[in-house]
């Protein structure tokens, strides 16, 4: 089966065409708000510094992941085709995160 048929035939933009499509245009907002989050977290005074460190770690990790995705799209590393395997794993990871957060909240509320 050809790769285009397996992926549904849709193509992803590469180069600076990334900045002309709606979902990919959100990269710019992610950079702006990611920078604002870093500034706000770094300038906050919190009673438990460990919490601030964890939030900063998550923020930096997400910012680096966004940067890596943007660079991969710009250089065309995806080959112009979507990958349904990556999409399936992305949804599974997100679902697991949500389930973990919900059960953690329930445990926290019951303690």
From TrEMBL:
Membrane-spanning intervals of the chain: 27-46, 53-75, 87-106
InterPro entries the UniProt entry points to: MAL, Marvel, MARVEL-CKLF_proteins
Subcellular location: Membrane
Pfam family, one: MARVEL
Record keywords, A-Z: Lipoprotein, Membrane, Transmembrane, Transmembrane helix
Gene Ontology biological process terms from the UniProt entry: myelination
Gene Ontology MF terms: structural constituent of myelin sheath
Residue span(s) of domain MARVEL: 18-111
Keyword Isomerase: no
One cellular-component annotation, GO: membrane
Membrane association type: Multi-pass membrane protein
Main location: membrane
Family: Belongs to the MAL family.
Protein name: Myelin and lymphocyte protein
Taxonomic classification: Eukaryota, Metazoa, Chordata, Craniata, Vertebrata
